[in-house]
Design brief:
Protein name: TLDc domain-containing protein
Oligomer: single chain
Distance between the termini: 44 Å
Structural class: alpha+beta
Largest sheet: 7 strands, mixed
Organism: Gigaspora rosea
Strand content: 15-25%
Strand order of the largest sheet: 1-2-13-3-4-6-7
Length: about 375
């Protein structure tokens, strides 16, 4: 009975929740390889990946991809990606799986190369080495020649020097290039996947940006939420915020409050920057702060700026994003966030106080 239930579950996901699957694509793809019963889910994902491989190769979760999932990609003749890029990604994946590798390749010992070779033992045979240009072979593959089988490297050199002479290595065919594309995307993809906001949250925020009275349908969202910063990955300091987010117009800040289900955030249509002297304000009528429906938070709260001349505050390098100078924002770490009503925005939570966050993310909002 269990296989039938799994099959039924897969088809519900694929037929009715395609937008959710795309939003959480990397995680779903990994799960699809955890059981042979998920064959339909694997096929659904593979049909997308062969045309849009960066959804996996550029994802935050790529380095923890299971070996069998990566091998399935490497074996696919229709993977729409240059072989040199595939090689680079496989090397990065292998390094992530291999402990105690020096960051400087010049410092590697024979044992380091043997360890990496062992990590990539089942992946390397599926690289199409002979489809990589001679210049790139010397530039990108030669530094790692010690992880290759000896005949592979000898035959690569032979092809460069005397291309018409026979070789012993199996030459895998080039990957098939295709002009076939997926249907135009009608949903925004939060790239990479967010650990805070959902597709439904993105629809709600997008509707507020466009001042719509009705919330966008999940398939109608006109924006892509491009991740610029994740606190747990990049750091919670003001310096990190300014390094990654300054001078980029149209951003959303979202924070998960510690110990509650609250998701607080704000939208700034202007840029972020470090202020002069004692700080400075920027004027806009289009910024807002919010609290999103989540868990036991049954209703989202939108608070648009009321004092437009004080909408955005540019503080010191140690301060992160601030809406007005006290309405909502962060100082210099995960424990120094603050919200207070009456500073150009209405309330988005019941009390005015400092609080800590478990996570926060900043997204650039890009029109599709």
């Amino acid at each position: 009975m269990f296989p039938e239930l799994v099959d039924h579950f897969q088809h519900i996901l694929i037929d009715n929740n395609a937008s959710w699957l795309r939003l959480n694509f990397s995680r779903v793809y990994q799960i699809s390889f955890q059981s042979e019963n998920f064959i339909d889910l694997q096929k659904f994902c593979n049909d997308i990946i062969v045309k849009h491989p960066r959804m996996i190769f550029d994802s935050d979760d790529f380095n923890i991809l299971q070996e069998n999932a990566l091998i399935a990609l490497l074996k696919n003749d229709n993977l729409q990606m240059e072989e040199l890029e595939i090689w680079d990604k496989v090397i990065l994946w292998g390094k992530a799986k291999t402990a105690n590798l020096p960051p400087n390749l010049k410092e590697w010992t024979d044992d380091n190369f043997k360890a990496l070779k062992n990590s990539l033992l089942n992946c390397l045979p599926h690289i199409r080495y002979f489809q990589i240009s001679g210049e790139d072979v010397l530039k990108k593959i030669k530094p790692y020649r010690n992880i290759l089988e000896e005949n592979i490297w000898d035959d690569l050199m032979s092809k460069l020097i005397a291309p018409n002479l026979p070789i012993t290595s199996l030459i895998l065919p080039p990957r098939k290039k295709t002009t076939v594309q997926l249907p135009p995307r009608k949903v925004s993809i939060i790239t990479p996947s967010s650990s805070i906001i959902t597709l439904q949250h993105a629809a709600e925020i997008s509707s507020w940006i466009d001042r719509r009275s009705a919330i966008y349908n999940d398939t109608e969202i006109p924006y892509e939420f491009k991740l610029l910063l994740r606190g747990s990955r990049d750091g919670f300091t003001g310096e990190t915020f300014h390094r990654l987010c300054d001078n980029i117009p149209g951003t959303v800040v979202a924070a998960k409050v510690n110990g509650t289900d609250e998701i607080l955030g704000g939208y700034n249509p202007l840029i972020w920057k470090v202020g002069n002297g004692y700080g400075e304000f920027a004027t806009t009528a289009d910024s807002f702060i919010f609290s999103l429906k989540n868990g036991n938070i049954n209703k989202s709260i939108l608070s648009r700026v009321t004092k437009t001349s004080n909408a955005i505050y540019y503080g010191s390098m140690s301060q992160g994003a601030w809406f007005s100078n006290s309405a909502f924002g962060c100082h210099n770490d995960a424990n120094s966030w603050y919200h207070s009503s009456g500073y150009g925005y209405g309330p988005i939570r019941s009390i005015n106080e400092w609080f800590s966050v478990d996570e926060y993310e900043v997204f650039q909002i890009c029109k599709i």
